[in-house]
Amino acid sequence: MMMQRGWVCNGGAKYHGSLTWTTNGHERATVSYGYSMVDPEEACFELRYTRSPYGREPEKVVQRITLVATVPNYGGRRWWMICPYSGKRATKLYMPPGGDRFAGRAAWRLGYRSQRVAHRDRPFEKLFRLQRKIGSSEGWEAGILRPKGMWSRTYEKHLERYFELDAECSREMTEMLSALKRGGASD
Known about the structure:
- By secondary structure, this protein is an alpha+beta fold.
- It has 2 domains: 14-108, no CATH class; 114-180, no CATH class.
- The chain is built from 4 helices and 6 strands.
- It has a 6-stranded antiparallel beta sheet, with no helix packed on it.
- Helix 3 runs antiparallel to helix 4.
């Protein structure tokens, strides 16, 4: 992601910067990073941050992550981080709430978002994805608007899919309300 956004340059470079996370305008966390890709055999990425475990003294952390490159079939180079805990290649590192270091998805035993979505919520997720895809506001029964420049037949195809998903969402909502009603009547 950092390479895709241009924060990290591919090959033969040294650089440093920082990322800051905010909530409601208040700084929540800052991570400084640096990388060296001058020698591909010694390429590394370094993260520096202060961690404040609940009820304990803040801890300054320096985490060094090895970078390796593979050569895709279409040419060029693809860079990977080596997870410091599992030793597996990773495109992203995570530090979930309560975590103490950045590590790959497998090391933290994190599932994909699609794995965490309940079956009954899937039609809503698909509907919201369609709404995001065409730039409409998200929400059940929020509708969709034809974006400027979109072909009519493309919009008609999206609109048809929207109505299918809206009907699925309505069925799911009716089933949930019926289940609540049955459960509430037995009290």
